[in-house]
């Protein structure tokens, strides 16, 4: 009788989580800085970057950068289920997840830099500035970036379910990668500070910004390769090659009602969350009239403080239902967007107000950083127990499809909001973005009320029940391995 997979040792769990730090850092720029680089905020003193692409609206409410980022996210969304299915059905000797991660790591990190290198930097033709050639090159670079992004992250996320052999282990893994995701995001936010340091050394703003991206790209590559090198997937991960084709697996996953409710919730959540991430530097510069470098202090402060709430969030999740804790997180997030919406309106000093908002943001960020990954992993495992076909990558792939669709919608909306006003004198578009995000967050909370966690837990208990055939043997092996 083949024994079940061994419990992943804690040092190797840290190595696995460092892979998340790597891809979080590599994806920060494309996810949060494309608008900043190609459509920067207007300040009274200086122009942050020269215009590399057309800045105005096209077709009424659409902008060039909004269209490009939407196309990139849409492409990301389409490729996620496809690559997830390839990974679920892979029989590679290295491991059905690790082989994809190995192949994609180098081009993923490379294109995280090239997205911010306009075409004339290759051709040495300044006349291409603000041209459609730049827009075409940016579109191609973003599409390639997202292809390799998906090739790494879809298999990586599937390992959350396969390296965790029960709900508590999956919650621990979700907590660890939430920490390292936040660290990667926090390091990424230092782009403004590091850009200023490079500028002080004599670089122009564009070269300084690109230098920061190169440093981040190199660091992220090393971190993404660590799990591939260290973690033996055949030893620690539950292996069950899916027999379903891409379309069949897609239909099977979408028949899961709880998962579909979570998908709608996450779509709405990622719309408002992305607006907050992309818009923070605009809120700081235009609504609070502070320097852009303040953003490099506020975001790390949010994440560092959120770590203090990780332990109570995990304890609350163990004692209560994940659903209840997540709903509380959504309520707090709604209040956070209210604070963004009234920035610069209340008769308070700008800098203390900014710090107060950052402190308040820590708890909802901790809650929403940990629990959703654990819920998806539980749903995927429960579905496998019920259907006999384990396809964790497809669950995470479709979830990523929806998350990226939400980000694409957010980027397109935010670039439109910028056309309504993005200056200190006229910040209307920036304020509208916060109000819209608040409304979307309320809707996400309402949808998630319908999620039924009890049915998921009932399925998971079948695996844990002794004497339940192969499922019982697997559970017994997992308990033996965990000591």
Descriptive key words:
483 residues; globular; single chain; two-stranded antiparallel sheet; mainly alpha; disordered C terminus; 20 helices; Growth Hormone, Chain: A
Q: Explain this structure to me?
A:
This protein has 483 residues and is an all-alpha fold. It has one domain (10-471): Growth Hormone, Chain: A (Up-down Bundle). The chain is built from 20 helices and 2 strands. It has a two-stranded antiparallel sheet. A hairpin with a 3-residue loop joins strand 1 and strand 2 (62-63). The model is unreliable at 466-483 (pLDDT under 50).
Concise summary:
The protein is mostly helical. It has 20 helices and two strands.
């Amino acid at each position: 009788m083949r024994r079940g997979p061994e419990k992943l040792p804690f040092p190797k769990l840290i190595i696995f989580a460092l892979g998340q730090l790597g891809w979080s850092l590599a994806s920060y720029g494309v996810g949060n800085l494309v608008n900043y680089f190609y459509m920067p905020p207007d300040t009274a003193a200086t122009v942050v970057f020269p215009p590399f692409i057309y800045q105005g609206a096209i077709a009424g409410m659409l902008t060039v950068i909004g269209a490009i980022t939407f196309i990139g996210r849409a492409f990301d969304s389409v490729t996620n289920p496809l690559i997830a299915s390839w990974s679920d059905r892979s029989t590679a000797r290295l491991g059905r997840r690790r082989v994809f991660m190995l192949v994609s790591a180098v081009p993923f990190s490379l294109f995280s830099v090239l997205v911010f290198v306009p075409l004339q930097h290759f051709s040495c033709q300044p006349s291409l500035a603000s041209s459609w050639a730049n827009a075409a090159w940016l579109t191609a670079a973003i599409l390639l970036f997202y292809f390799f992004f998906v090739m790494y992250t879809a298999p990586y996320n599937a390992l959350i379910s396969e390296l965790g052999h029960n709900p508590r282990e999956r919650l621990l893994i979700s907590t660890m990668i939430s920490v390292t995701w936040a660290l990667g995001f926090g390091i990424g936010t230092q782009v403004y500070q590091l850009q200023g340091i490079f500028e002080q050394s004599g670089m122009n703003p564009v070269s300084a910004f690109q230098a920061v991206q190169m440093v981040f790209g190199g660091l992220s590559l090393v971190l993404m390769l660590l799990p591939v090198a260290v973690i033996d997937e055949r030893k620690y991960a539950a292996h069950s090659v899916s027999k379903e084709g891409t379309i069949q697996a897609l239909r099977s996953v979408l028949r899961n009602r709880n998962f579909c409710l979570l998908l709608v919730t996450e779509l709405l959540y990622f719309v408002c969350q992305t607006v907050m991430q992309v818009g923070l530097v605009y809120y700081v510069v235009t609504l609070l009239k502070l320097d852009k470098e303040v953003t490099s202090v506020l975001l790390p402060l949010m994440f560092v403080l959120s770590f203090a709430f990780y332990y109570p969030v995990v304890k609350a999740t163990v004692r209560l239902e994940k659903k209840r804790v997540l709903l509380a997180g959504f309520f707090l997030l709604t209040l956070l967007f209210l604070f963004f919406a009234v920035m610069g309106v209340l008769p308070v000093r700008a800098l203390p107000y900014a710090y107060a908002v950052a402190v308040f943001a820590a708890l909802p960020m901790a809650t929403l950083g940990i629990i959703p990954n654990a819920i998806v992993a539980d749903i995927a495992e429960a579905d496998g127990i019920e259907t006999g076909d384990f396809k964790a990558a497809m669950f995470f792939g479709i979830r990523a499809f929806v998350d990226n669709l939400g980000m694409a919608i957010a980027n397109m909306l935010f670039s439109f909001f910028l056309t309504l006003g993005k200056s200190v004198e006229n910040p209307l578009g920036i304020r509208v973005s916060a109000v819209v995000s608040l409304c979307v967050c309320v809707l996400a909370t309402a949808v998630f009320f319908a999620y039924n966690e009890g049915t998921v837990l009932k399925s998971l208990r079948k695996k844990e029940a002794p004497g339940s055939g192969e499922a019982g043997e697997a559970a017994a092996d997992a308990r033996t391995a965990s000591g």
